[in-house]
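Q: What structure does this chain adopt?
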Amino acid sequence: MITKQELSAALNISQEPNGFLWQCLDVEVLKKSNYFVTDVKTTANRIVALAAKAELVRIAEQETKTEKGPITLGFYLSMPRNNSWNGRWSGDGGKYVIIKKFTGMKGKEKAKSLLENNSHYHDFGDGWAASVEIKQLTPEVARKDKKNSLGFCGYDWMVNSIISKGKIEYS
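A:
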């Protein structure tokens, strides 16, 4: 996928008389088209500029759509270390998830910062340790995971701590 910066650069380059982008176009195809004019460079530059502008508009519309809705995050619990008699957590194989939606500018900024550090670990000090992984979810995945979740085993405080403090801290 081409970035906005690359497209903006393409728009600037396409305005140059000997710009690289116009040189990549097949001049022979332009000559055969119904839209051919005597100035091939100008026609090529216009085509490149129109294509780049259309792509910029498409990207802007896509960004607007994603920014309108809430950001949905899933917090997934696992017990990577335990001190049980058989070396396994009785909840192994189950899905333990809490779904949170973040709205508004501050909420979305918070969600983005949580995704930057999306894995948290807590050692209970007795041989047990918990891990909470954060993922951004589509509405469909959020509904499915919420339906299939077995709860959070009383560790909801971990999610609240991660959201408020950026780490798992028992208070």
